[in-house]
Design brief:
about 400 residues, alpha+beta, Alpha-Beta Plaits, Molybdopterin biosynthesis moea protein, domain 2, five-stranded antiparallel sheet, three-stranded antiparallel sheet, 13 helices
């Protein structure tokens, strides 16, 4: 049977202290103190002392503390995977976003050291350098930089990335960057992850650009308010804008349709007066004045009724005149035919006595015949025959 490993009392106290801090504080953070100078650490610890407890120990003891508290703090064991570099633990009741903001403000920058891993792309921008012409030109060329000499100074012609993110910084590059005043390394407590109510908030979540966030909120509020105004959404802020807008549109419509109200009557009368003045200006000064008619003015309804009666009378007269014309057209050829017949008969009667031979023996008068009987019958005149034909027709 293998004997149990001996654990010192000092380590047991460290673990017990971590367990106590984990249970008492709702916010537990993991920070990385790699490449952090001791002087910088002391300044940051002094600023955080009132609200934050900073504890640094071995990774194995931190893991033991998380394993012992995983039943009380569900999900806290997930912080083990974020113990990287030179880890330390932060215990606080402060909001995690405020904590990240505080640590970010207390960071500073330092030159890169030989052998360090570049935290980001390290580049040199085009422009003049403080170096005079000499062997330094060869050193810059070895780094892949294009240079030229102007005003007895070495100038970098174009931008160049000398170390990519994640690569090791070489000694010659670190020396040139330091001489040029390039300080790419960020020094400070790097908050890697935070535990809060069972959730793990990483650096990407905690690092919020407050100015951009505020601008986004303002933009969203402006767009929502514009939409609410367009929809006339009944809330206090919108109603204060919508009611004057609706009132103005209603008044404009009333003016266009010349609807008289207390608010539009004055404008409508002014418009009518202006129209009358324009018409008056178009009338010539020497134009004769209109004569007053003796008749009383009639209402439009009476005038329309009289116009209808007059039109009906005119229509009746026109119909009668058309009928008379048609009758006269039909009677005229018949009357002419009658006249021709009467004239032919008269001509025949006038010719008949001439054609008969004269007889010597004239008929004797019969006794008893009156003088009137012996007279020949009178022939009707031409006018009497025409009148008689008209009567017959």
């Amino acid at each position: 049977m293998n004997p149990k490993a001996h654990v010192s009392e000092a380590k047991k106290k460290v673990v017990a202290n971590l367990v106590k801090l984990i249970k008492e504080n709702p916010i537990i953070g993991v920070v990385n103190m790699e490449n952090l100078p001791a002087s910088q650490l002391q300044k940051i610890s002094a600023k955080l002392r009132e609200n934050v407890v900073l504890t640094m120990t071995k990774k194995r003891l931190m893991k033991l503390a998380f394993e012992k508290t995983q039943e009380d703090k569900k999900g806290v064991i997930k912080l083990i995977e974020h113990l990287k570099g030179m880890p330390a633990l932060l215990f606080t009741k402060q909001d995690p976003f405020e904590l990240f903001k505080t640590l970010k403000k207390n960071k500073s920058f330092a030159p890169a050291k030989a052998g360090q891993i570049a935290p980001c792309d390290l580049s040199l921008k085009a422009g003049p350098t403080p170096f005079a012409p000499g062997p330094i030109i060869g050193e810059l060329g070895a780094m892949g930089l294009k240079t030229k000499v102007e005003d007895n100074k070495i100038n970098i012609i174009e931008n160049k990335v000398v170390v990519k993110e994640g690569e090791e910084v070489k000694a010659n590059v670190a020396g040139i960057l330091s001489r040029l005043g390039v300080k790419p390394v960020e020094i400070g407590l790097e908050l890697v992850a935070v535990y809060e109510n069972g959730d793990i908030l990483t650096k990407d979540i905690l690092d919020i650009d407050e100015e951009a966030y505020i601008n986004d909120m303002k933009s969203a509020h402006s767009e929502a308010f514009t939409l609410a105004v367009e929809l006339s959404y009944p809330i206090e802020e919108v109603i204060a804008i919508v009611l004057p807008k609706i009132h103005g549109e209603a008044r404009t419509l009333a003016l266009e349709q010349e609807i008289l109200t207390d608010e539009t009557s004055e404008d409508i009368l002014k418009k009518a007066e202006n129209g009358a003045m324009k018409l008056k200006g178009k009338v010539p000064e020497d134009a004769p004045a209109p004569q007053d008619s003796p008749k009383q003015e009639e209402t439009p309804a009476e005038e329309k009724q009289e116009e209808k009666v007059a039109e009906s009378e005119d229509n009746v007269k026109n119909d009668e005149s058309k009928a008379d014309k048609e009758i006269s057209k039909e009677e005229t050829p018949k009357a002419e035919e009658k006249k021709e017949e009467v004239n032919e008969e008269e001509e025949k009667k006038e010719e008949s006595p001439k054609e008969e031979p004269e007889t010597e023996n004239k008929p004797e008068k019969v006794e008893g015949e009156s003088a009137d009987d012996s007279k020949p019958e009178e022939k009707p005149s031409e006018e009497d025959s025409v009148e008689q034909s008209k009567k017959e027709e």
